[in-house]
Fold these 3 entries.
Entry 1:
Amino acid sequence: MKIVSWNINSVRFRIGIVEQFLRAADPDILCLQETKVIDGDFPIEAFRALGYRHVMLHGQRMHHGVAIVSRVPIVADDRLDWQANSEARHIGVRLPNGVRLENVYVPAGGDVPDREANPKFGQKLDFLERMTRWSESLDGPTILTGDFNVAPLESDVWSHRQLLDVVSHTPIEVDALGRLQAAGDWVDLGRHFHPAPARLHTWWSYRAKDWAASDRGRRLDHMWARGTAATQARAHSVFEDCRNWLKPSDHIPIMTEFAF
């Protein structure tokens, strides 16, 4: 089973490259973040035409939004409010084999890494803390994927020294993500199959005139697993070429293959 995660940055605006990717990579399940659409306007027929007939949505107009589309049956639609303000940032389902699949869009956290000066940064840290408390109560094989908006390792960013004070790579965020990982005994599948310091970036800013030439990437998108879901993982891929496609997202898809 191939499971993909992709922050698409507006699914309706980029439906063309989504269809292109699904035809090329042929995943069984696609987890999307930042869909930026209410459920009633989600382009569901485009996915059904490609065989993704099982769809779970948690949408929001113009902002946030997550979705899971699948070729295999999925049930148990959970929507946890880790942001504590009803933003659409999580959706969870159960696969036919009983494995839980959790799709999350962690807040970016603004520009200033200070809770007092920047409330958005505090919201991000609180979001990760609520996820940590949730992880402590988990029982059974689970996959957690999505845009975590944290690049935890030195090799997960283009320059560790220059980004130490930049939101997404600050020590306080890295520590918060580490507590989350420890709480659920999660295996970081990206680094399991591509150990540091291997290149594994998943995001490049739109601000760069030539993203590939400047190559200032960060690994913000992750696939974690626990229990037998982790031991059944067989490969992990990133699709950097998608950043060159027409009207690209600033994120690229990541995919893990499982021997379920």
Entry 2:
Amino acid sequence: MVKLDQQTRETYQNHIIQTIIDQNMTDFRELFFELHPTDQIDILNSVTKKQRAVFYKFVKPDEFAEIFQGLEVSKQKLYISELQQNYAIDVINNMPYDDIADFFAELPESTKELYLSQMDKDEAAEVIHLLKYDDQTAGAIMTTEYISVASSDTVGNVMNRLRLEAPEAETIYYLYVIDEQLKLVGVVSLRDLIVSPLDQSIEEVMLSRVRSVETHTDQEEVARIMKKYDFLAIPVTAQGMLVGIVTVDDIMDVVEEETEEDFGEISAVRGSIDANVTAFAAAKKRAPWIIMLMFLGLVTAGVIGEFEETLEAVIILAVFIPLIMDSAGNTGTQALAVVVRGLALGSVDGSSVKKMLKREFGTGLMLGLICAITLLIIIPFLYDGGLILAAIVGVSLFFTLSFSTMVGATVPLIINKLKIDPAVASGPFITTINDIMGLIIYFSIATALLDYLPQ
């Protein structure tokens, strides 16, 4: 397999594309199949529709299946529409069941039924079975292509089976031991098989304490378990019976999906992050948040209006409004990120909430104190009003940062308690709330000390 560095990648890619243009199948296959599948995908995505028509002639369906399963769904839909129907069915038949199910889940019902009706019956039945599970659960992302053995088997017999069955399995790093009722009773690793005597029974080398998940387990929980135990795969059971496995490559996709979803929630752009989304669709997704925040912004303007007399009396106070608002928003968003990450990783639970809130409040106090002392030193040299002005801004910022940190930490916890995704406590929402409270604190202190400021 050729390993391409950044300098040679483009040259090698152009060379392969030229073989497509020249319709030189021999050179194409010799060069193309020396590449890693990821580099093969890059080449496929870089050629024109006319060149792809030649590409499909040069690549067999089982070979294209390896490439197809690594494509983004949008590309899968495009390329499958360009294939002849028989070729497309052969491609699908050569894909792992879980990848077929993931692809079919994105298709219109009529198209999905068409493909299922023309697939191999046994494979179609497996895919239909996977499609029945709720989205974002272990059942939805698992594969049924695994190797199971009986505890009474010998190591030698299992090794012989592996030579025959391994090509059809998703992974062979773990083999799962089941009893006569198909219930999961143990697991044995490939390493254990290799180092064990051939006449030794599987029962003697297997681990009987198996960590598994149920079909209804949330995919984020599956990801947390696999990360905690450094698993390459984890068995999925239904009432104790082994029904599938979730592999690490599927979990990497889950982590990417969940991270993108949480990022979209926190930044109030959920559903509009994808570069392929049109401007209209992105605006439609973001509009509700922007309109809500606009109305909250009117509340912020109303707060400033309530203290109009204070501002008219001491115009210099207006200079520090952005400082108060930005600091409040930034601190609240930082606390929000810490808590949402903790909830996503499962490190924040009932026993640690009090400790975490205490820590975040302490952090807010220290940040506020540091900023207040800094302003007490700097402001008298830059603005009229001396120490009184510096004290107003410094003390206001101290209380604002303390309050903002607690808001950023507690809001996602409350939302999580209500069984709602804590990421919906988005940064813009918390920022606006903290802006309002920061201004109230600032102008309240300024109004109370107005007589001590130069008019």
Entry 3:
Amino acid sequence: MKNLLKLLSLFFIAQMAAQKYEGLAPTPPMGWNSWNTFEVSINENLVKETADLLVSTGMKDAGYEYIVLDDGWMVKDRRDENGNLIPDPAKFPGGMKALIDYVHSKGLKFGLYNCAGTQTCAGYPGTRGFEYQDARFYADLGIDFLKYDWCNTEGINAKEAYTTMSKALKTAGKPIVFSICEWGDNQPWTWAGPVGNLWRVSGDIYPCFDCEYKHPEGNWSSWGVLKILEMRTDIRKFSGPDHWNDFDMMEVGNGMTATEDKSHFTLWSMMASPLFAGNDLRLATPETLKILTNREIIEINQDPIGIQGFKYQSDGVNDVWVKPLTDNNWAVVFLNRSDKPAKLKFDWNKHIIVDKDFNRTLDLTNDSYALRDLWQHRDDGNTNKKLNVNLAAHDVIAFKLKKLN
């Protein structure tokens, strides 16, 4: 009995020493985040309506489980007399705890936002100096996800700041997915594996396919889909189950063409990025919902071995992106990155694709694979036949390859 107690004590100490809760994100998290569309204009009704729609539209059944309130959920200029954050009573008259309970009652999970600095990016109270108190506050509320930003952090070391908050969440005793959002400035992929479950690799996304938006009010930019896709090199080896490279919330349904939305969703799935919708679900068109709930594409994103895809080749117009999957299957996506239609020709039998980071090889010179078209939802022959198609501007063709015996 004494030995058992000693072992339990050592186990408890080891668990407390670990910086993050392990195993909370075995596949890339999926959900909805308020920032892209609403910024700080958020409220109780929006959250409830979004929760209802995640269920009624089939998004929950497709895998979307988190509703994350981004910046602006708290009273702006103060904490309460005990130093706790104050959910804005004008925006959330029923109280944050009751709202979280409502989301949980739908079978969904709930997330909040804060920042490592003295203030959030929108000027609300930050967490610097309040890490353990805020972690207890979140645990008492019952949240499941914390997005932690990087504004107003002058003089702070990123690794230390995020490690402190990670330990605070662990000490608070409530398993909470920890989303690190310092925009890739401090190369979190090299140190954040023990600290967080996912980390941003870029600045904020912008609803365009291939652009940089320079904000007039400051010396910073937001980025289009292709800019973020290729912003970092040689980081995929750091991503995997419970430690994901995060390419930011999606802009599907926020003003790009339906073709661009389709490609955006496909590429984020190929990169094993967390999939967070950022649109107003109350205004979502059937076409937008069809894109967001394409289960065959989601299956590529949620593949359990969790390997991030990579660009195999490009001729400047057509890219070939590949992603190893379980059971020695592969996903292959052809992207027309130009703004004009393009002819796509690809002789499968001439290619040996090697993934050096994860020691996997797709040998199409010796092996044949059945092709499954993931947007047309149909079997489409095999790799013994050359691919010869016209591809619209900014469009993709996505295949799952399954080895033939």
